[in-house]
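FIELD: query
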Amino acid sequence: MDQAYELVIEGYRQSKQEPGLFQSAEVKKQAARAEKAMERAIGTLNLQEVSPVIQKNTNIESALLLREILDRIEKPRPEDIPDLEAVKTEGIKRWEIPNTAIAIVQISDEGWYKNEFRFSLFSEETLKRLELWYGEVKHLPYQEGALEGFYEYYISTPGSLLPPKWSKLLPGWSKKTFWDQTIWQWGSLLLLLSLASAMVGFIYRELRSPRNQANSKVQAWEGLILPTSIVAICFVSKYMVTNIINITGSTCVTIVLVLETILYCALAWLSFMFFNAVGRTIIASSYFDENHLLEATIVRNAFRIWGVVTGASLLYLGGNEIGIPTQALVASLGVGGLAISFGVQPYLKNLVGGITLFAHRSAKIGEFCEFGGVTGTIEDIGLNTTSVRTLGGSLVIIPNSVVSETQVVNYSRCERRLMNFTIGLRYETERQQLLDVMDKIRSWLEQHSMIVDERVRFIDFGDSSLDIEVFAYVMTTSYAEFLEIKETCLIEIIKIVEAVGTEFAFPSQTLYFSRDRAAGGGDRATASKPGQ
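FIELD: result
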């Protein structure tokens, strides 16, 4: 670290003497040599349990902070420090600097340092408590040989070890420390986050504006703009925070973790939207016409599942990078697998029902069907539910498990529709009138080009009428056309009944009055009750 300090100071002095706002090639070489020297110092830290994301942005700070603490406390005598031979003979696994809790531990041959000879590193507990210890010793004077002000210099200047030349333009008051960061760093951070939020909000409003509404395929690809923008903004913001503004400490850790979390969530969102857009583009081709709507549904849902799997994989990788124990989380799912299986059982039943519906091809989008008492036109068939638009205009969402377990009546696939109803004539109708009515109805049905297999029969003596059954098939699959033909038939029957001279029956009763002779020889009037 002493070498890194000397190279940084030398490069900084040389940079100040050179004209212009950009560093020369020689200064950049000095900075690269300083960073390599710093990497050797960082190699003394045990970073096994540190999140890779945090490690990339805090390793230099941790090394400098540890050196800052060591420069302010009393160092042990060289003879008090166990050498390699003492470690091997005495089996020393842990050694603490006298009068401190700063520990150097021996690393096992497993983990990151397997097959590497690194017998001792500063422990994880030491790295976690560096900020606390620094707060306790920063009032102490520097010891002999200390790198005075190296840590403060690093956390208060932009860039990495060697700050850019534009940093000399910053006013003196902006370099004052406030809550572990300088004033210019807090201002730059606030400005950066405000600009990032404003850009996301602007893109969102532009995509939601009515003038950008287009067809489904174009909208699907436009759906990639917002997550792509968030990913780009997160990358730029993270670079600015860690490399330009150089936020340090717990503030840096918090900001980086938040940005990385948003980044991986946006990547998962982007992957889902990408596969969804690809599926929409494929089913927009001329092949997927009205005769291939079911195949279009399968393709759309297949790409959606692909997008979900890819997004979940990205979240898993992101969790590992951030430091979330995703492997333990996935393993714990096996313990709670039984409980989860009960929770997802309805969804799995719907999924199996959807696959069954696809395989049997009993119905497709646009067909008029009946599912367990619900009749209407199918608008969408998903892996979980089926959407049906009823004749009344309401949208009914039916679970696929219900669709697969109930009787499906597909009216759109019938070659013809049955027309069957009964008409009743008054009992006052004469026999010849009854025969004429049936002959004329039969004759009209025979002459209609859309009606076949007609049958007209006198079938019963009803309570109030002479019942005639009309039975025929209408050669159409359209329900609207069927209703139109049936309406014409009914109106024609009204004309026939009126022309023959009879009338339709309606529920009625007839009372008959008579006189019975009384027991004393007189007469009495009685009224017969219905049924007597």
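FIELD: remark
The chain has four domains: 44-156, 185-324, 359-410, 417-500.
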